Amino acid sequence: MRPRCGPGECMMRRSLRWIVWWLCLPVAALAQDAPPDTLVQRIAACASCHGTHGEGGNNAFNPRLAGKPAGYLLRQMQDFQKGLRHYEVMEYMVAPLDEAYLREIAGYFASQEVPYTTHPTPRMPVTAAARGEQLATRGDPAKGVPACMACHGPELTGVQPDIPGLVGLPYDYISAQLGSWRTNTRNTTAPDCMATVVSHLTDADISAVSAWLAARPVPPDAHAAPAGSVTPPLRCGVLGG
Q: Which residues does UniProt assign to the signal peptide (predicted)?
């Protein structure tokens, strides 16, 4: 038997059904009753899961969008369009949207500045905490794993215009995304450097680094670092590598 939808997913499925119903309205009804095509209207579907200002939804799997680099947000929507990322609701919602429309949405959420939400973090044994810190700050050269900070910036707040911040994200979301790269349900433009990194991590590594990142406090200045402030240690297609 197929499992029932988890927290947050049911709400997104209801949103999807509403969108389908709206798209099926007769043309005459749309012409008479359609809301004005404003930016607020355009981001309404996004806000139903990610919050009006992109502050994040009410569960770990509707992540914060506010303040993420616009280039990163644009690429994620395009990756859903191209079938590189897989999530039914997102794939359906962005399928008919052109690049200009997507850029407008990305720019809106990138410009939002709202307080970060705090999330519970799992307790870690001392050895796991040390391993998580190692992977995030120094990497594991013997396994070919660069530090998270080497790409995501010294404060892990991301780098303009394409590298997202990792601070302020819940453990479940971080570990789920790393797992998605491992199972090929999340991909991006080749060479996919994140897929390369994750292929060298064990389950214990993923749990340790996810917990360490989730527990890291958000710095006073959580803006993404300027473009060119880091030199990525791997070739990454998203960076033109």
A: 1-31
